[in-house]
Structures are given as structure tokens and as C-alpha cells.
């Protein structure tokens, strides 16, 4: 879909928006049009990317105390987890501000996909079977994904005329605005207003009323798509850009800051040593995620101190040659970032003996435009809006009820979401747009991918395919925020010596089948002989893009 838009003369943002919306047709078990979609965009000649948050807020009139009266210590699955849909505003904002094509040119191929149909993937078929009991409570979902009470199966053709009707409604609004002489940008705004204030909003509110859920027209109309500067760190000669602490995005640069103090090259550090250091560094960065991350409009997040190299040096000194038996306490970045200035580097290591959802789309063009986005919220988390082919974002499931937690639910607050696209630049040169599905495993996969490219000097495809370790040391970002067991898991290929060595260090680590750790999507890049990743010469060519497993 993105390649088709490129051929029509669009840039990377046009193509990325088209591909992202197409994912809601092809992978509804991974993302829905009215879900979340944090997007990072780098425009031609821009010194750094910009982040479009793509996530909505909790309804203004639903206080935590009211929720407790209704449900006790629960946030029930369904419309009771609804926040204002952030994805539509994000896609349309990216297209309006950084694209070149009218919405019609981007959406018409997606509408065609809805009407002609797509084969059901094994993943979607699995979700349809897994969520049958839930769909029996939601007839509007069942009629699409289990017609006649029989879940869709692999290879079956899935047509989605209801979703097509939503896209047609947006195009009608755009066409009416253009007929009145409005600009391309104002016409896209008219389509946005149709979603949040017009007929589509009316249909969403009707569904919510049927379930007695008091999200209001003002909650939808008042949604604002925020554009903001990314967080960043400097790593191995490159700038790594991530989303802000309303997501888990800062975890990526924090983790890389911790790892930066080690020589991770294969000639210096064995794979087992690297994985040990990675798991321990993740525990330290993760403890700070839980202690400090939240919507910065309502939570005081010491982000500059959390990202400081001095703070990372102090935290790194806590890593030893054996596994920490539990999640360490968080640091005090405001105090310790100052106290740690000039701290020594890390001690050397001796040689060692649910189903998740979220998708990723990225695009890059020869002019240096880049887009990286992680659309999410699957269609089985809330009932389908009748006649519209999507569900309302149920990302409220990533709030906390604990009043001490920075991610605690509050009116007008964004949940601290897991999706977090990222980018890499070298000076002012675009290098890489990347991301990964996987809920709490996302930043781990992304950091290991960066390490594979910049530290272990693997080629792009080899870096994508290299095996990964997954830590479950943190509480789940999804309510009720349980811990998983075992605490870590490692993909196993042909050998098991690394697994045994990690266990000997005290890691509670299980074996996973090869290529089962989740996925990632990587933009068009090349690796130079000097170890720097640079933009490919012509990213519009199909062979210039690489997709993870």
C-alpha cells in the first residue's frame, strides 16, 4: 500500500499514513483505526524528528472515585476502558503537516482493500478463536469476525464494508470542504472534525450510551493531537530519538545509556556476557520507568535527569557479575544525576561459563523524510461500533488505580502507553526509522536491535534475525499489572550453552523457540564499513526496505 502511494508521487509520510491505515484492515487483531497510533516524523532538512502522540485521554467526568464505586479495584474489559481515540487525529495530522497528497489519494487504496477483502492470517484466525466467548457478548464484533457464530479461519476472505464506510465518510467531508474552496490542509481538518464531532462521533456515542458509559461528546470534540519534541540520547556516534514519558519511550535511551559504558563488541564480550549485562541494565531502567513515567502534563517527570549520562553511570555501577534476585529500587535522578558527575565506568566482566497486539509501519524516501508509527488496540478489546468497522480505543487498560503510581487514572490524563516508535540520525542525516510490537518487550527488542547494528556490527538483516532475550522483571503495563513468570526468556537456536551460563549467573530464564520473541520493522538503511548506519541511496526501491520476522 505504501509502495502504491510512492508510485503515485507521495512522500514517505503519505506512504506511511496509507500503510498504517491499511494495517487496520489487514491486521485488525493488532490495531484498529480508532485506537492509538504514536507517530514519529522527520521532515526533509529538519534537525530532529517530531512526535505526534496519537493517544487519547480519560473522560473528563469519570473520576477514579466513581470508577471505584462502580467496579471496586477493577477496570473492566470493554467500553469501560475507553479513552478518546488518538489514532485518527494522529494519522490526519501527520498527513496534513508533513504529507503532500490529499486524503482521497491516501484512503482510496485502503477502501479498495476493505471491499475486495484480505485473506485471514493465522494470527487473526487465532485471535478469532481465542476471543469467541467475548464476541458472544458483542454481536457487532461477532458478525464480522465470527459470522454465524463460526470464527474466521486462515485463508478465508475478510471483507470490511463497515470500515470502508467510515473512510468514505471522511472523504465526503474532505470533498465538501474542497468544493467550498478550502485548502488541502483545511480539507483534511474537515475530515478530522467529521470523526470527532460529526456523524462518526455520533455513532461512537450511541454505542457508549447502549453500554451506559458516560464518555461525552465533549470528550471526543475536546481531543487534541499533540506534537512535541522527542527525548534523545547520543549513542555510538548516533542520535537515538524516542517518545516522551506518556509512553514507555524513554526506556530505550535510558537502557542504551546504561549499556554505553561497556564494550559490547563480540571480540571483547561474549554473547552470554552481553545478555547478562542487558538483563541487569533493563531491570535498573525499568525500575525507573515504574517510579517516574506518566503523562507529563499531569505528572512531574524528571526526564532530563533520567536521561543524563551521569545518572546512567551511577546506576550502571550497581550491575555485578550475578543476576539481581529482584527488581531493584528506583534511583533518585534529581539528586543522583548531580552527585554522579565524574563517576567511574562499570567494572569489567570476566569471561562467563495475552496474546500481545500492536503493529509497526515505517517509511523513508530519498529526500530524507521518515515516518515511524506503532498503531495498536485490537478489535477484540471492546465492542465494534455498529456500521463503522472499528472499536473505540481501550487503552485505558494501561492506567493504574494505585494512587501512588505516576500512571494512575485521572480525568483528562493520557495512559502511559507501551507503543513507542523511534528513529536514529547521525548529525543532521536521517539514518533509521524503527520500532517493535510486543507490549513491555518493545524497548528491549529495539535496544537489542540497535546493539546488533552499532556494537556487534551485524548487517541489517542479521541484526533483525539475531536472537533476543526478553525480561519479564517489570509488572505488566496492562491492568491488573501482574508479573509474568519466568522472569526472562531466551530464543534458542542450535545451542543451549548460553542459556545454561545465564542460569549459572542466577537468571531465572526459560527457553523460547527460535524467532518467537516478537517482531520489529526497520526503515531503509545501509551499514558502512566504519560501522555507521546510513540512509540507503534510493529507499523508494522495494529492496531498500527490510522487515523483521
Structure description:
By secondary structure, this protein is α+β, with helices and mostly antiparallel strands. It contains 20 helices and 18 strands. It has helices spanning 2-7, 12-26, 64-71, 87-98, 103-116, 122-130, 132-137, 139-145, 161-179, 184-197, 199-210, 217-221, 251-259, 271-292, 303-306, 309-316, 333-339, 442-454, 460-465, 497-504, and strands spanning 39-42, 50-52, 118-119, 157-158, 227-228, 231-235, 238-242, 361-364, 370-373, 422-426, 429-435, 469-471, 488-491, 509-512, 521-522, 525-527, 533-535, 546-547. It has a six-stranded antiparallel beta sheet. Strands 5-2-1-9-8 form a five-stranded antiparallel beta sheet, with helices on one face. Strand 16 (525-527) and strand 17 form a beta hairpin. Helix 4 packs antiparallel against helix 10 and helix 16 (309-316) crosses helix 17. It starts with a helix and ends with a strand. 54% of the residues are buried. The model is unreliable at 343-353 and 518-549 (pLDDT under 50).
